[in-house]
Write a structure and sequence with these properties.
By secondary structure, the chain is an alpha+beta fold. It is 28% helix and 16% strand. The longest helix has 19 residues. The radius of gyration is 22 Å and the shape is globular. The N and C termini lie far apart (49 Å).
């Protein structure tokens, strides 16, 4: 900030004030609404309250300390008759749901699936009344669990049911999807989660936001050009409210969690620009792996052909 200037009260005529006000009104200017009030306006929001974050902390690129925010810190924003809907944010993150994949450095998809199911349960059980108006289907066969034993069991299931060469460690997007459906809803064919691929970064981002908004479940992404699993738990957008099914919104940033301890991302707010072109550990890039040559019996697609050169997500579809 600059050095304060001495206060001077200039003489301003009434005619001058009226003229300025008229000019500003003519170009559609109005004072910027309060940020928190702008998050929810009764004229545009669906019935019920929106479960909101406090303003996002400053973004930090690269390895960061985990965010200390949990669901308990979220607050409900009171509607304001003066506010104009502009910014919408939801985050499903819950600190009780997370675990590092370590010491198994091959278990990123398994640890991510474990956390995603945990967060979906916590959101359903503990969100304030009216916080979700969607027809989201919460996990029915899952109790929150952050144990290493459960992580390894999930990884084994992913490897048995995926389309990846077993000579490679870890699991692919088909195995990740299968574990979410099996452990959360009792069947590999439950169809609650689906692997999705997109021709562009923007299309993948918008689909990710819509999935979180409509179905109240985290979205998995294949980062590091397909070599690592991460989780998107929330978003910050401007424009119309994604919960209504609209596509008339612009993504400002997302909340990212990474199961790898050395990365340290826990509910890290990441701007759209950084997510697109930041450091390798945080950047969402096209899939370039070639180790999934088999055809998936669920969707009938070969992993390599389905994902190569595209942005890949594991997203809820109900």
């Amino acid at each position: 900030m600059g050095r304060p200037r001495p206060h001077v009260r200039p003489a301003i005529s009434v005619a001058f004030v009226v003229t300025v006000a008229a000019c500003l009104g003519a170009v559609g200017w109005s004072p910027p609404p309060d940020v928190r009030e702008s998050l929810l306006a009764p004229s545009a929001a669906p019935s019920g309250a929106l479960f909101l974050h406090a303003p996002a902390p400053p973004e930090v690129e690269g390895t960061t300390a985990a965010s200390s925010r949990t669901q308990a810190s979220l607050q409900l924003s009171a509607p304001s008759p003066k506010a104009t809907p502009s910014t919408w944010t939801i985050d499903l993150y819950d600190a009780r749901a997370v675990r590092w994949q370590d010491p198994d450095l091959t278990a990123c998809t398994a640890a991510s699936a474990q956390m995603m199911l945990n967060m979906a349960v916590y959101w359903k059980d503990e969100a304030p009344a009216g916080a979700s108006e969607s027809e989201a289907m919460p996990p029915v066969d899952w109790s929150p669990d952050v144990s290493y034993a459960r992580q390894e069991a999930i990884l084994a299931y992913q490897r048995r049911t995926g389309t990846m060469l077993l000579s490679w460690p870890g699991a692919d997007a088909h195995g990740w999807r299968n574990a979410l459906n099996y452990y959360g809803w009792g069947s590999i064919r439950a169809g609650v989660y689906s692997d999705e691929s997109f021709e562009s970064f923007d299309a993948a981002v918008r689909s990710t936001v819509s999935a979180i908004a409509l179905y109240r479940k985290p979205v998995g992404i294949l980062g590091w050009a397909g070599d690592h699993a991460q989780i998107v738990t929330g978003y910050r957008v401007t424009g119309d409210d994604p919960r209504t099914g609209t596509t008339a919104f612009s993504v400002v940033g997302v909340y990212l969690t990474d199961p790898l301890h050395s990365d340290g991302f826990r509910d890290q707010y990441v701007s759209l620009a950084t997510w697109k072109s930041g450091a390798r550990t945080i950047r969402f890039t096209p899939y370039l792996m070639t180790n999934s040559p088999y055809v998936d019996p669920i969707d009938g697609k070969q992993g390599n052909a389905e994902w190569d050169g595209r942005w890949v997500t594991i997203a809820p579809v109900v």
